[in-house]
Amino acid sequence: MLGITDAKPGAPVAPNMLEQLRALQQAIASYALQLVAAAHADTELVASVRNALRPLDDLRQAQARRAGARGGGANVDAPTPAEPAAPEVTPPTPIPAFDDA
Predict the structure, then answer these.
(1) How would residue 69 be classed by pLDDT, with cut points 50, 70 and 90?
(2) What's the rounded Cα separation, in Å, for the pair 10 and 94?
(3) How many helices (H) and strands (E) does the chain have?
(4) Residues 52 and 35 sit within 8 Å (Cβ to Cβ)
(5) Whether pLDDT at 43 is above 70
(6) Is 2's pLDDT higher than 90?
(7) What total number of domains does the chain contain?
C-alpha cells in the first residue's frame, strides 16, 4: 500500500561481473602458463619468471593468512603437527639402503 517494495523508475541495475571475472581469471592463468612454459624451455628465464609470478604468490599467501585468522583454514607456511616436515633432498643426498628382511 505504501509502495515501499515497488522499484523506482530508472533505478540503476547492478552489472553482472561474473563474465568479466572469469575472463580476467582466464587471462591470468594463460599468462602464468606462458611464463612457466618459457622458463621450462630456457632455464635462464627462471629468475625472471619467478619475479613475474611473485604477485600471485603474495596474493595466495595473504588469502591464506586471512583465512587462518578467521579460522577458515590452516596456515600453509607451517607443517601440521600430525605431519612432520620432510627432510630436504638435494642431488648429493645418498639413497638410503634398504634391508631385505
Answers:
(1) confident
(2) 74
(3) 2, 0
(4) yes
(5) yes
(6) no
(7) 1
